[in-house]
Amino acid sequence: MRAKSKGMPVFYLSLGGLFCALFFLASNILPPIAVIPGVPITFQVLVVAMMAGLLGFKFGLTVLGTIFLMTAVGIPMMSGFSGGPAAFVKPTAGYIVGWLFIVLTVGLWRDKVEPKLAGRRHKGLLRVAGFMTAGILGVVLCYACGAAWLSLYNGIGLSGFWAGFLSNAVFFPVDVLKLAAAHLLCQAMERILRRLGVPSQPGYAKN
Q: What phi and psi, each to the nearest 5 degrees, are found at residue 82?
């Protein structure tokens, strides 16, 4: 058990690299969804929710921080093959920072609440409901972060916050679908991990 546990960090470093690659694909390679003409919607939220749902808060935050760092040094991780410090000061930068809330809510659900469902009746249904509730809360907080930054960016202070926040309603159904897809993909990856004899979260170094 001790020898296997020591190998877990290496495995999860590799898995973190996979999520970085998936994020790049979601940002720039997979075709975006056009809910509103001229406003493409990428699959970035799906990947962020997946990394939090599979890896938990601490390691999910590490992977997202790595993506931010790669972006800051000029690697084109964001949509439109954009990178560099400018990616964090553009009008939509608030939504980028807002992904932290998705990692927070989904990751803490994964770490703190979901393990307590073991042996419960209707465990599968509770897992779906919990993941979706945590994900939706994270998305709403992400919208709030994006709207607050956009208001400040446009020089109108927070007076235009609610207008910007409510304008996200058109994107909400698509983001809910992304969360549902993220949950299904997390479950599929967990089954693969179990078959490989690998815990579905890091931090299991027990004697």
A: -95, 145
Residues 64, 138 contacting (CB under 8 angstroms): no
pLDDT band at 168 (very low <50, low <70, confident <90, very high): very high
Supply the Cα-derived Rg of the chain in whole angstroms.
18
Contact 51, 64 (CB under 8 A): yes
Chain mean position to CA 54: 10
CA–CA distance, 130 with 183 (Å, rounded to integer): 10
Residue 18, pLDDT > 80, answer yes
Residue 152, SS3?
helix
How does residue 80 score in pLDDT terms, banded at 50, 70 and 90? confident
Q: Which class for 152: exposed (0-12), middle (13-18), buried (19 or more C-beta within 10 A)?
A: middle
pTM above 0.90, yes or no: no
H-helix or E-strand spanning residue 72: helix 44-72
Query: Residue 144 corresponds to which tokens in the numbers above?
Result: 């709030």
Predicted pLDDT at 12: 76
The tokens for 133 are 């509730």
State how far the Cα of 28 lies from the Cα of 26, in Å rounded to an integer.
Answer: 6
